[in-house]
């Protein structure tokens, strides 16, 4: 994934970036290019190394090996206060003894901007985050969401080449978080800076970012546009961590033209060749729960190409827009199926015998050497 | 009319609740209030009363309460030098505590790592020995034939007749030594509370470590600095042990004069001097706290 640094490029490039604590590699030979002006999300469970990566970009951690290059300049060893990079901290880290105005003016004042010039810019920034009337207050007098916006204004006022956001919405409640996600996205488009957003919330990453890099155990598992990652995960970790997936063991029987055929316990399915991470030997056959359709067992109508027959509905939960079924295959494995609640559709009940069917183009094939449960244990986060 | 009723109802019920809470508050305050009344208010009133007695009385024949306000100008005029000296010594000792204590508290709070507890115990350790005994040890330490003086005399830029004991330097050194823990502990508590992420944020916002200290650490530690200076300056200004053991008649502090006056039986003058000292310190402290602007100190 490491691309050579082209002259004049404004991109942030991490090359072989490594951080070790004793024998433990928190970040392991990470190669990453963040295009200038993009909203980039580093997504992963806690402990995957995403915050450490961010802190190395900010200069708050010294890498064990590797380089950080920004706009063609090697900043690996540069002190944090000399980097054209600013951070919105998870805890906000607002200065409690300073007013909102002085908090926001902190960066410009340290860079030697006069008090009067800084004041004008501070007002502009506070208007951007809609906090103009709170300028004279202390951080403790603001709500969590307001403090979050002050932290953002305090970083943005410096016009950093890269803005780092370390789980900036983690401390907010769900409703406020959704609102701030849209707000952040709006501001990023407004100011046109590179945002690197660290989060463990896959929905947040997918909503906001142009590019998502999924991180696991100090490495990048997969990187791409949210739709792309969701549609075609290349590892079991991504398949499970980003949304949910059904993974069924199978083995490839052959490739005919553009299609790979896989023998499963209970039938044969096909997948397009470009959707196969591996096209030989043992594989995981993957499909997203909402792509699968349930039909009465043995009913020839309504098939979508790939079928698994003779399954039994073992659990039904109604979730408003959809109904979530757990379906047991003859092999004993349980799969998830999400059906949209169209009025015309008959609801199934526990114990009903059904066939599962889905389109080959919604199928993906993963390397069977990977752990099928990787990434599932973080569901609750 | 019906609209008026609901607005009055919500106000009515909380009253008994509040009364009960108020009563509990008074009960909790009672032991402390009694203690203060017996051991602070009564002695203070008695001290002020004594300062207004007729100075011509004596312990044997008793004193007359004559409202003799002239005790004050008399005491202040007579003991002006010791008063000024006390405040000077206390101020110098406080500044010395600040210079020695701030780096120490800072190092313990931020740099000591796993030695933090050991260092804190070391700061408190002197309290295991009595104040008097420790000051006697300094009397010995600063003596003319001890190594400190011997070493200083050996240095090329000092005279062979250099002396420490019985000089202002010895008194101030003693005060500094004795009150240093009172400066370090509250300051340490203040520094310890500072969120390290604030310093990271300062660094992220272009503040060099030194600027970060000036703009973040120092202002946030001000409550500790103010508490430390008060706990150092106030007792140091009224101290008489250090001067008694390390000083000379030329370095007498106001505490020593008050003590002598009480011994000599001149209660009115001793009391007037005590009250004058108390008022002076309260005024100085009030101005200081007001100027330091640390409303969150208490």
From TrEMBL, chain A:
* Name of the featured protein: Spermidine/putrescine import ATP-binding protein PotA
Which Pfam family name is an example for this entry?
ABC_tran
State the species of origin: Nocardioides antri
GO cellular component term, pick one: ATP-binding cassette (ABC) transporter complex
Q: Which residues form the signal peptide?
A: none
Q: What do we know about how this protein assembles, alone or with others?
A: The complex is composed of two ATP-binding proteins (PotA), two transmembrane proteins (PotB and PotC) and a solute-binding protein (PotD).
Question: Where is each ABC transporter domain found?
Answer: 12-242
Domain of life according to the entry: Bacteria
Key word Nucleotide-binding present in the record?
yes
Q: Does the keyword Repeat apply?
A: no
| Family affiliation | Belongs to the ABC transporter superfamily. Spermidine/putrescine importer (TC 3.A.1.11.1) family.
Query: EC number(s) of the enzyme?
Result: 7.6.2.11
Automatic annotation (TrEMBL), chain B:
Question: What subcellular compartments does it reside in?
Answer: Cell membrane
Under SUPFAM superfamilies, the record lists: MetI-like
Broad class of where this protein is predominantly found: membrane
Signal sequence interval, chain numbering: none
Q: Where is the ABC transmembrane type-1 domain?
A: 83-288
Membrane topology summary: Multi-pass membrane protein
Q: Which Pfam families match?
A: BPD_transp_1
Which family does the record claim for this protein? Belongs to the binding-protein-dependent transport system permease family. CysTW subfamily.
Q: What is this protein called?
A: ABC transporter permease
Species source reads Nocardioides antri
């Amino acid at each position: 994934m490491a691309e050579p640094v082209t002259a004049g490029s404004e991109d942030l490039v991490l090359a072989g970036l490594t951080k070790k604590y004793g024998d433990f590699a928190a970040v392991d030979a990470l190669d990453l290019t963040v295009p200038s002006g993009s909203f980039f999300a580093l997504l992963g469970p806690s402990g995957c190394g995403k915050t450490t990566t961010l802190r190395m970009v900010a200069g708050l951690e010294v890498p064990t090996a590797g380089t950080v290059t920004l706009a063609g300049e090697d900043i690996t060893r540069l002190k944090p206060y000399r980097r054209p990079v600013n951070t919105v901290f998870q805890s906000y880290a607002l200065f409690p003894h300073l007013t909102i105005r002085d908090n926001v003016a902190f960066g410009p004042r340290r860079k030697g901007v006069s008090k009067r010039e800084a004041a004008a810019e501070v007002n502009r920034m506070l208007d951007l985050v809609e906090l103009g009337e709170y300028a004279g207050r202390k951080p403790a007098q603001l709500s969590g969401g307001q403090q979050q916006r002050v932290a953002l204004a305090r970083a943005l006022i410096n016009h950093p080449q890269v803005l780092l956001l370390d789980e900036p919405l983690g401390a907010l409640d769900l409703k406020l978080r959704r609102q701030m996600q849209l707000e952040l996205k709006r501001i990023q488009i407004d100011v046109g800076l590179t945002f690197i957003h660290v989060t463990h919330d896959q929905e947040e990453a997918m909503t906001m970012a142009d590019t998502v890099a999924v991180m696991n155990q100090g490495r990048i598992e997969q990187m791409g546009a949210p739709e792309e990652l969701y549609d075609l995960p290349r590892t079991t970790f991504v398949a499970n961590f980003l949304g949910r997936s059904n993974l069924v063991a199978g083995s490839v029987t052959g490739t005919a033209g553009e299609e790979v055929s896989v023998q499963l316990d209970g039938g044969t399915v096909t997948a397009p060749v470009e959707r196969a991470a591996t096209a030989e030997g043992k594989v995981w056959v993957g499909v997203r729960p909402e792509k699968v359709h349930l039909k009465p067992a043995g009913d020839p109508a309504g098939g979508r190409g790939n079928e698994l027959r003779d399954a039994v509905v073992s659990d039904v939960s109604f979730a408003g827009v959809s109904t979530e079924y757990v379906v047991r295959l003859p092999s004993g494995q349980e799969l998830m199926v999400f059906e949209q609640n169209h009025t015309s559709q008959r609801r199934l009940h526990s114990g009903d015998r059904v066939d599962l069917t889905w389109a080959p183009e919604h199928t993906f094939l993963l390397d069977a050497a990977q752990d099928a449960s990787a990434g599932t244990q973080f569901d609750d986060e | 009319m019906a609209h008026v009723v609901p607005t009055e109802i919500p106000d009515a019920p909380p009253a008994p609740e509040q009364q009960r809470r108020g009563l509990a508050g008074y009960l909790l305050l009672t032991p402390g209030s009694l203690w203060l009344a017996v051991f602070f208010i009564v002695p203070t009133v008695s001290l002020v009363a004594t300062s207004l007695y007729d100075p011509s009385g004596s312990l044997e024949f008793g004193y007359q309460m004559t409202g003799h306000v002239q005790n004050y100008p008399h005491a202040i005029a007579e003991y002006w030098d010791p008063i000024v000296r006390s405040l000077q010594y206390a101020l110098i000792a406080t500044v010395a505590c600040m210079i020695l204590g701030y780096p120490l508290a800072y190092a313990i709070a931020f740099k000591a790592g796993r030695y933090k507890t050991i260092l804190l115990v070391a700061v408190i350790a002197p309290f295991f020995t009595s104040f008097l005994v420790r000051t006697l040890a300094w009397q010995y330490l600063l003596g003319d034939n001890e190594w400190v003086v011997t070493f200083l005399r050996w240095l090329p830029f000092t005279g062979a007749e250099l002396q420490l004991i019985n000089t202002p330097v010895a008194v101030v050194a003693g005060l500094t030594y004795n009150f240093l823990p009172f400066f370090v502990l509250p300051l340490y508590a203040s520094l310890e509370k500072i969120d390290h992420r604030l310093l990271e944020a300062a660094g992220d916002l272009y503040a060099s470590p030194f600027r970060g200290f000036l703009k973040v650490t120092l202002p946030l530690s001000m409550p500790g600095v103010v508490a430390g200076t008060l706990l150092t300056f106030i007792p140091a200004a009224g101290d008489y042990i250090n001067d008694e053991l390390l000083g000379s008649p030329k370095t007498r502090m106001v505490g020593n004069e008050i003590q002598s006056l009480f011994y000599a039986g001149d209660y009115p003058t001793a009391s007037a001097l005590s009250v004058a000292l108390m008022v002076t310190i309260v005024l100085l402290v009030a101005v200081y706290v007001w100027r330091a602007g640390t409303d969150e100190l208490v």
